Each structure stands twice: as structure tokens, then as C-alpha cells.
TrEMBL record:
Domain Aldos-2-ulose dehydratase/isomerase (AUDH) Cupin: start-end pairs: 342-646
Protein name per its UniProtKB record: Aldos-2-ulose dehydratase/isomerase (AUDH) Cupin domain-containing protein
InterPro entries: AUDH_Cupin, Beta-prop_AUDH, Integrin_alpha_N
Gene3D superfamilies xref list: 2.60.120.990
Domain Aldos-2-ulose dehydratase beta-propeller: 31-210
């Protein structure tokens, strides 16, 4: 459906297509009719909307009214979804209907087929104007394409913008794009494009540009914002329509996405651009009702844009329970809704203190890189509830709070296995930080997630061996929007004998870098404190049992210099330790490879909580980090992070995921 003043009387008329058929496969070969309905004007309560026939084409699905080749008369672009019944593979004709001389008495509008070779499975399109004629962006199996009439060449031209979603082709047979809208930011009316991909897809992506040059010369970068659920038995997802508009009146367009269902992938989400150069958008869920299409207007005449939805109820595709038409009134601007930082950082006692939202309350994704160690960048990231994040082979993830999930079928059986990861892995076992996900994404549910993300330059095989601490490059990676005093903080490893004067540590190749605190912003409750350590070959980092500490500590290995370093611990907290008489053979040995973490060593009670002494300190067995020895190297340092959790927030989940089972340790 579209609207335009066909009669020229200053009042818009309505143009619709109908008689589609049951589904795109079982379409009506005699249908696909286009008509325009003449607006009766002020006498709407008395007069009927008179129907005028335009034309038809089987499976007519979308149409756009504008001035595509000239500006004197109206033209209608007709976009069928398929070309004929029971044929999803043949090209789809694109038709141009031209307004006749006598619009009231014409039996049909003259038309021509302007293209019948390029497009397949057209699901949606959006109109824009280049300053002269109307142009159209088409979302189809080919991805996103710009179709326009070239006045200099007097011919129709197609410019390819993006391929859309390709990863699901083997799984569902659908690929490309299904929905498209154009968003403006500031003075740029064509700042980004938002898309649903593929056909009836589950992927929400945006396309941003690298320059403000003419549309035909722009290079577009695609960012996947979210993946909503998995394709159903028909290979289709829940997303169906999106629209761009400036809802909060800040001069930048946001966009709405409709999800047909079922729950939890049902309703309407509101996306607001934060940083187009990195494809960052904030997100709010603004409706839980099934939504097939969205209409935008100022329904309550308050100078703010509202939106209306209609539930999805189409036999053969999806039928929502209790379908309805709903209007949602805009109260965002009245509340002055602005995207706040979920992660803030300040300098405190010559260290960094991060104040973060609780993941289950977060409203938007945020990434904050803060330190780079020998080319490995560490970022603090927050993923809101019911959201997702892309992962690749160079990304390793440590969960600090909340839960992440993914599906992997890369095992020997090739069966899909669901995995999850929380803030600790199984006690006294190791687990990899690497993630193998079928769709290259991790997701969250109601808990959200706070993460430390390790990004390498070229995968684990390209990690450098550190043979000299003076060659270890450590950089402050905080972005420019952080305060100057935090960005100027100089991170340095300090040899531990400068902190501890005990004879054992004197001259030992053992170094420490302090430190990073993380508190929840709502009440300043500490979540954890992190510090980095390095140890040369064969170094015993000191046997201890935290008799004076009130935290729960795990270690994440970044570089295992010898391939043999890790945690050594006595099997029970009741075992005594004497540095003169307790042999090394009394210790259990737990190798922690590069980009692995180990689970709790502390004692855990029947409620899955840490066992505390009377003074609140945590009960541990005696333990140490013990660097290994590799005779192939003169020196090779272990580099690891100690994460010290607030013991009051360290109740663990005993229903261990597949990821937390005893892990295979690769040869190093």
C-alpha cells in the first residue's frame, strides 16, 4: 500500500495491491491486482472510496508511487515477490505503470516491464529522492540494490549496495535481504541503511558508509546488530518490517523493527545510532505484541511521531495468538531518553575503576577497550538481555557476570550442541575462552552479560612468545571520549620484589601490573578486581591460601610461555603446607593453556557458595601459579590475569554447561 494525490485535489488517495493468493508458493495466477482508491474528501462519513483499476501481475506484493522517469505525472512501480505460482527460482518482473490522460475513465494504466532478469524474491523496498527523480532501494535475494532511471542514458540502472545475509544459504535456502529503510543523521539524509536479512529473516544489520561522496561511489560496510532466534521449520525467522524516523526529535533518525513471533522474538525494538563508524546502536524493546508491519504518524497531534502495528496472522507462514492493531504513543521525547554509557571509567589511586550497569538492566551494547598487551587488546563489554554479539576466530571471551550462549555443530558427530558460559567454569578444571558458534554469534537471555574480550591480530597461532620483559609492549587503549587522566595512565609491569621484600622473591623473574576495579554503578558494589602477572620459566609465584583475603580468585592465561604453566594446588584445604617439608609431588597440577581459564579452587558449600572463615575470608587449599620449563627456549614468560571476585557475588551454577566439562588440553 502507498499514498499519493492522484486526483490533484490536494488530498491523498490510496494505492493498494490485493488478491495475492495463499502464500508466495501458492499464489493466485489471476491476482496481483493494483487499484487506487479515490479519497472522498471531507465527506468521508457519507461517501465511499471509489475504486479505480490500475493493472496486475501475479504475486504483486509491494508497490511504490512516485516520479521515477519524469515529474509531470504519477508512476507506480510494481514489485511482485515471485513471477508465477510454484516457482521461487525464476526472475521477478519489475513493472512501471504510468498515469493515463484520464484517470477517472481509464480501464487500466499503461505499463512496461523495466526489468525481468535481475531480481528474485523481492520482499520490500524503500523510496528516496536524489534531488530530481525518485529512486528505490530493493531488498531481494540479491541483497540490497539501488534501482533508478538514468536520465543521461535514458535507461534504468541497477547499482549493487550489499550482499545481505549469506551464512544461512545452506541451512535454509534463503539468502540476501528482506527489508530496508534509510536513516539520516545530522545533515546527512542518507547516513545509514537498516536491513532485515534474509527473506523473513532473523538478522538485523546496518550498512554505513566511508564517505559523503555520491551514492554510486560510496563503499558500504555491513554490521550485524542482532540475530533473533533461529529459523523455523520453513527456514524463516521472526523479523518482517522496519522503518526509519526521528522519534526523539534530536535530528537523527532511529529505526523500529517488527518481530512477528513467537515470544521471546516478538514485538518491536527501537534502535538509536550511537557511532556509525563502528556500527554501534543502542536498543530498547518498546512492544511485546506480534508485529507484521509498522505505520508511523503523529496519531495524537503532539508533534511527536507515534507508531502503529498489526499482528502477523498469515496461514502457511505464522499465526499470532489474539491478533490485533495497536497504536503506541511516543513518550520517549518527553522523558528526554538519551543513550547513557553502560560502562564508565575513572582514575582512582593510579588505577582504573570501571563503573558498569548490571547486565540484566543494561539497555545497550557497549565496548570499552582499555589495554593492549603485545598486540592483544582487552575490552570490557556489556551485552543487554536478549541480545547478541558477533564472534570470530580472533576473539576470546571471559564472562565476568551473566550468561552467554551459542550453538556449535563442529564436533565429530556434527550434531548441534547448545553451550553456555557463566563467570566461572567447573571447579578445578580448565575451559577455553575460544567460541565455535554455528552462526558466529553469542546470545544472552534475561541475565545479559558483562565480558572481558580478548582480540588478537591473527589467532592463537600468531601470539608472540615473550622472552624479555623489556620487549613486552603494553599500551593504554582507552578511546578518546574517556577522560584525559585515564587515557594518560601508564601501565607498567613492576618486578614483584619491589612490593615484597621476602628473600624468596629477590631477583625473581616475576612481575605484576595493577590494576582494574569493576563496581556496579547503581550502588557502587564491587564485582571484581583484576591484575596482571608474568613469570619466567620455572618460577614459583608463591604458595598461599588467601588466609587474609575476602575474594574468590580465578586465573585467565593469556600467554603460556612454556606450554606447561598453570595452577598447582593441594587437593584439600585441610592439608597443611610446610615450605621445608611439603614436596612438589603433593600438589595437583592443572595446566592452563593460552586463552584458557580455570574454575574455582576455593571450598564450596551445599548452597554453591564459597566457604568463609569467621572473619569473612575465603577458604582455599594451598596453591600457586607454577611456570613451566621448555628447554627449547632460554626464556619464555607466562602472562595471566588474576580475577578476584567479590565473595558475596560468587554463588556458582552447579548445572555445568557442555563448555564447562573437563577440557582437552592441546599440545603447546
Amino acid at each position: 500500500m502507498d499514498q499519493a494525490d492522484i486526483t490533484g485535489n490536494g488530498i491523498n488517495d490510496i494505492i493498494i495491491c490485493f488478491q495475492y493468493g495463499n502464500t508466495m508458493l501458492d499464489s493466485d495466477p489471476e491476482g496481483g491486482k493494483i487499484i487506487w482508491l479515490e479519497n472522498p474528501g471531507k465527506n468521508t462519513n457519507k461517501g465511499l472510496w471509489k475504486m479505480h483499476y490500475v493493472g496486475k501481475s501475479t504475486a504483486m506484493h509491494r508497490l511504490k508511487v512516485g516520479h521515477f522517469t519524469q515529474t509531470k505525472r504519477w508512476e507506480i512501480l510494481g514489485l511482485p515477490i515471485v513471477s508465477k505460482p510454484y516457482d521461487l527460482l525464476s526472475p521477478v518482473p519489475v513493472l512501471l505503470f504510468r498515469q493515463p490522460d484520464n484517470i477517472f475513465n481509464a480501464t487500466e494504466w499503461p505499463y512496461e516491464i523495466i526489468n525481468q532478469q535481475f531480481f528474485h524474491l523481492i520482499h520490500d523496498a524503500t523510496l528516496f529522492n536524489d534531488g530530481g527523480l525518485d529512486n528505490i532501494l530493493i531488498a531481494s535475494r540479491e541483497g540490497i540494490n539501488w534501482l533508478y532511471f538514468n536520465q543521461n542514458l535514458t535507461q534504468w540502472t541497477i547499482v549493487h549496495i550489499g550482499d545481505g545475509e549469506k551464512e544461512q544459504k545452506q541451512q535454509t535456502a534463503y539468502y540476501g535481504s528482506a527489508g530496508i529503510c534509510v536513516g539520516g543523521v545530522g545533515n546527512d539524509s542518507f547516513a545509514y541503511m537498516a536491513a532485515i536479512e534474509p527473506f523473513h529473516g532473523n538478522v538485523i544489520s546496518v550498512y554505513t558508509k566511508n564517505t559523503n561522496s555520491s551514492l554510486g561511489q560510496i563503499q558500504w560496510t555491513r554490521y550485524v546488530l542482532d540475530v533473533y532466534g533461529y529459523p523455523d521449520k520453513n527456514g524463516q525467522g521472526p523479523a518482517h518490517h522496519l522503518v526509519c524516523a526521528d522519534f526523539d526529535k534530536d535530528g537523527d533518525d532511529e529505526f523500529l523493527v517488527s518481530l512477528r513471533g513467537p515470544s521471546p522474538n516478538q514485538g518491536v525494538y527501537f534502535y538509536k545510532p550511537i557511532d556509525l563508524s563502528r556500527g554501534l546502536f543502542a536498543k530498547w524493546k518498546v512492544s511485546d505484541d506480534s508485529a507484521a508491519r509498522i505505520a508511523v504518524a503523529d496519531f495524537d497531534n503532539d508533534n511527536l511521531l507515534d507508531f502503529a502495528t498489526i499482528s502477523y496472522y498469515v496461514l502457511g507462514y505464522y499465526t499470532a495468538e489474539n491478533p490485533s492493531i495497536n497504536i503506541f504513543y511516543n513518550r520517549f521525547a518527553q522523558k528526554n531518553l538519551q543513550a547513557k554509557n553502560e560502562i564508565q571509567v575513572i582514575k582512582q589511586n593510579n588505577e582504573l575503576l570501571f563503573k558498569v550497569s548490571r547486565p540484566n538492566k543494561a539497555l545497550q551494547y557497549q565496548e570499552l577497550p582499555f589495554i593492549t598487551i603485545d598486540g592483544i587488546t582487552l575490552s570490557l563489554e556489556i551485552i543487554p538481555p536478549n541480545s547478541s554479539r558477533q564472534v570470530d576466530n580472533n576473539t576470546y571471551i571471559k564472562v565476568l557476570s551473566g550468561i552467554i550462549m551459542w550453538t556449535d555443530s563442529s564436533g565429530e558427530s556434527h550434531e548441534s550442541v547448545n553451550y553456555s558460559r557463566t563467570f566461572v567454569s567447573e571447579p578445578r578444571k580448565v575451559a577455553p575462552l575460544e567460541i565455535h558458534s554455528d552462526n558466529n554469534r553469542i546470545t544472552t537471555e534475561s541475565d545479559g552479560a558483562l565480558l572481558i574480550v580478548f582480540k588478537t591480530l591473527g589467532g592463537i597461532n600468531n601470539i608472540h612468545r615473550v622472552d624479555d620483559m623489556e620487549k613486552l609492549i603494553v599500551e593504554n587503549s582507552l578511546p578518546e571520549y574517556c577522560s584525559q587522566e585515564t587515557r594518560q595512565l601508564d601501565f607498567q609491569f613492576v618486578r614483584y620484589d619491589q612490593y615484597d621484600s621476602r628473600p624468596y622473591f629477590q631477583g625473581l623473574e616475576f612481575y605484576n601490573l595493577k590494576g582494574f576495579g569493576i563496581n556496579f554503578a547503581d550502588n557502587d558494589e564491587p564485582l571484581c578486581y583484576m591484575q596482571l602477572w608474568t613469570a619466567g620459566q620455572g618460577v614459583n609465584a608463591g604458595v598461599h591460601n588467601h588466609e587474609k583475603d575476602k575474594f574468590c580468585e580465578v586465573h585467565v592465561c593469556i600467554i603460556n610461555g612454556s606450554g606447561e604453566g598453570g595452577m598447582h594446588y593441594l587437593s584439600s584445604s585441610k592439608q597443611d603446607y610446610d615450605p621445608l617439608t611439603t614436596p612438589d609431588s603433593a600438589f595437583e597440577k592443572l595446566v592452563v593453556p593460552s586463552f584458557y581459564e580455570h574454575g574455582p579452587l576455593w571450598d564450596i558449600d551445599a548452597q554453591s557458595k564459597p566457604v568463609l572463615r569467621n572473619d569473612g575470608t575465603v577458604v582455599y587449599p594451598w596453591h600457586k601459579w607454577q611456570a613451566g620449563i621448555n628447554r627449547s627456549f632460554n626464556q619464555s614468560f607466562d602472562v595471566w590475569i588474576a580475577v578476584e571476585y567479590n565473595s558475596q557475588l560468587s554463588t556458582i551454577n552447579t548445572a555445568w554447561s557442555n563448555e564447562s566439562k573437563p577440557a582437552f588440553i592441546p599440545d603447546m
